[in-house]
Amino acid sequence: MSILIHNNTKVLVQGMTGKEGQKATKAMIDYHTSVVCGVTPKKGGQVIEDKPIFNSVAEAKEQFPEVNVSAIYVPPFAAKDAILEAIENDIPLINAIVERIPIKDTAYCLAAAKEKNIRIIGPSSLGLICPGIGRIGVVGGPLVNEIFQPGSIGIISRSGGMTNELSWQVRKTGLGQSTAVHVGGDLLMGTTYADLLEMFEKDEQTKAVVIFGEHGGSYEFEIVELIKNKKYTKSLAIYIGGKFANLFPEGMNIGHAGAIVERGQGAKEKEEALRSVGVIIADNYEELAQLIKPFS
Amino acid sequence: MNLYEFEGKKLLEKHGIKTPRSVLIRRNDDVELIYNEFGQVDVVLKVQILSGKRGKNNGIKFCSSAEEVKKTCEELFNSQIREQIVVAILLTEKIEIAEENYLSITYDTNLRQPVLIYSVQGGMDIEEVSEEKIEKHKLQIKDSKLESDIPFANELWNCFLDEDCRVVEINPLVKTKNGEWLALDAKISLDDDAFFRHTEWAEFEPRTMLGRLPTDREVQVRKIDEGETYYRGTAGKYIELDGDVAVLFSGGGASIANMDALIKAGLKPANYTEYSGNPPRERVYQLTKIVLSKPDLKGLWIVGGVANFTDIGETFGGIVDALNELKPSYPIVVRRAGPNEDEGKRLMEECAKKNNLKMKYFGKEISMGETAQALAVMIN
């Protein structure tokens, strides 16, 4: 098994006629993922990679009611409308690759998705891959078969490049991946570490998980709660990057608002809290694969 | 982008939040004339820096005469407050304070929605105020109207939304002895990603988050990406640092891990630079030239992970164009893999051979962090 992508995954690409949308469509099809159609306003009737283009998500769903994933490849200024359109049309899983979406738009989309129990992965997410089953987005690129093979390790990364690099490190130690997810590096994440760990917990194929985290935000504390509540019981190793940030002056954060919201949640507190519930902390990202190997 | 107090107050005023009467003093202004025209005896001088805690760091002064104001301005302009250059001084009327409160709105990452924070114990030591004395209210992003009794909360919410802010903070929010509410300070951080719908932001003066003016190289690098509004890639992230090892990182996450690895290997970064996505050869060339223009470099580390979609041939083409011109004599270590990696490697090795560069080239067989060690060995 795997999480998020299955044999009945049917993908719609919003923005399929653009350069990046076309590339992603091809990357998904090349990895045997079922992409059924695309949407670009005013370009209905065109055909990309043998897939029909519609003017709206509603039109697309009329023809292809089986669509259950939308991958969003539009410019940042159009992202909010595109995501809301997918939400209004009840597409249960949305992968937003778009980078540099204004945080206000992201917050709005996340609120709208929550009302309808719709999952957004991203924004700024290159996508996700279940080796041997399919991929949404371009994770793995053309080297996908050198890097990914079905296996027991779940992979979560804040960085797109590191999703691949970390998956490669895992492969190099002789292991494979169950699902690798790029959650995106934005301050507000549609799907967090904890959301994915809950899914990995239920997935029989996954024996352990590795995470490439980044300095900033407080999402690691959700992991601590999850483990305390026994909602995640498998092994977990994490690397949190950005220790060098102390090279920069404190002035980089202005105001106290952040400090009050995240009171007592610095890098040190994060690592201590994670350790206290049995999470393995890596000093370098390279160590993650070796540290998790005994639990695979 | 973080705003100076005087810029933040303008935005607050725009949304109906009152601030004390004030005038901005720049270097070389006729301070005595400004003071006399202001027409009030007791005034406050506040340094304009992108940092808080000015009161505790001699950045706020009270004066009562033209001579005193002139002398104090000179001193302030000649000092650094919290390691930051003083770009301007805000001269404001002195307020008779009855109450000091705290008010802010920001995004809570756990809740994934905005929160309003209010305390009746505002002022200098807000971070030490106990949890019970701080009210937190979740705000619904879909509700453009807020109906709160907290002074200026509704106005601040409008400001937060309309101006695309990441943080808005008023500390202190004061009640004067006349019973009037005033924002005595403003800390606002704008969301750079919303630039496309705020053309007025282009008018803000240049600044860095490092407490100093941007260096020439930083200004030059910023120009590389000008006009680039789409997500396809960026060549323009450059922060100048004190060390002597130049770096060209690819990918945000890898850059963070590699910066940690470089420091762990005992090397000192000359810069923090990252290109991401698929920037064209020409832009990577420009970026490389600027990165390598820093004097007294001892090494160059070109490193990235196994790319998903960055064209290694194209991006390395840009680096090679710059290396062919500059022919640096210091050690260079490269580690990269991904689409078109064979072409990237060929270009790089050919360039090294032609120019007699001290270069070691690695692919994905070795991890990124290990190649930091390799560079350290070559340099030492």
List keywords for this structure.
heterodimer; A: 296 residues; Rossmann fold; 11 helices; globular; B: 380 residues; Dna Ligase, domain 1; D-amino Acid Aminotransferase, Chain A, domain 1; 3 domains; 6-stranded mixed sheet; 10 helices; 30% helix
Describe, in plain words, how this protein is organized in 3D.
The complex is a heterodimer of chains A (296) and B (380). Chain A is built from eleven helices and 14 strands. Chain A is an alpha/beta fold and 296 residues long. Chain A has two domains: 11-121, NAD(P)-binding Rossmann-like Domain (Rossmann fold), CATH 3.40.50; 127-295, Rossmann fold. In chain A, the strands form two sheets. In chain A, strands 3-4-2-1-5-6-7 form a seven-stranded mixed sheet, with helices on both faces. In chain A, strand 8 and strand 9 (134-137) form a beta hairpin. In chain A, helix 3 (76-88) runs parallel beside helix 4 (103-115). The longest helix of chain A has 13 residues, at 76-88. The two termini of chain A are 16 Å apart. The model of chain A is unreliable at 250-254 (pLDDT under 50). Chains A and B meet through helix 1, helix 4, helix 6 and helix 9 of A and strand 7, strand 8, strand 10, helix 6 and strand 16 of B.
